[in-house]
Give the backbone structure.
Amino acid sequence: MPDLSLVPPALGYVIAGVFGAIIGSFLNVVIHRVPLEESIVFPNSRCPSCGGVIPFYDNIPVLSYAMLGAKCRHCKEHISFRYPAVELLTAALFIGVAWHDGLSAALPFDLVFAAALLALVFIDAEHMILPNVITYPGIVFALIARVAIPYLTGTLHFDDLPSLSQGALAGMPVWVVSLIGAVTGALIGGGSLWLMGWTWEKLRGIEAMGLGDVKMMFMVGAYLGWRLTILTIFVGVLSCSVIWILLMARQREKNMQMLLPFGVFLGLGAVAALLFGVPLVEWYAGQFR
Ligand SMILES: [Zn+2]
């Protein structure tokens, strides 16, 4: 095995960015095909307008979009800016996760988690759904990560694990403690979303939140633990409220119903909690000590 710790940090970030752009290209396929219930493996990439097969040299992340001048080679139809945007965002996200984790065995897990969030955000933004084919495997993945990561990196990777390992759960196997943390986080995440939807429904008599948000927060809660889950919901509600107020202020008819894809804001909150959450919740907890 080559000693990866000898790779200079700058080169590490370049590798993370290039890898992120490639995964972003795959996420574009996921974002386009999952809502249509199409296979994400077959057939090859095609132009959504003319159906022409896109050869590999026209499918290079970001670069092909620029070189083709945002037009399909066959039909000259405009290619959505979403494609390079997803690739660039995934690149940035992967650089952020690499910065957060460093060369840790938890890095591949955090990258999968971040990629799943990005796919959910873009699908929710376009279709107002958070598909089960992403959230269900996401919940299973979170539980697997919860069992595996403490054995690979020690108990420090998960925010809730050090405090849970002491106290009432002391002496239990670390995977049991980690799973208890996952279930607690999932119940707090999914439960509060369910409660918010239920309350809104009772107050307004309309269904405000689908169960997609609840399932997404089961996944996020299981993976991040209860403290970062509360932060995720806080950032989600705050950013959603700000956008809602800005949109309402521009609207002429104030009584119009307006639904925002809440999963987009929850995804934003979860990424913020993953990358910057621990120092934030530590600072907040310090105010009461
Ligand atoms: Zn075309």
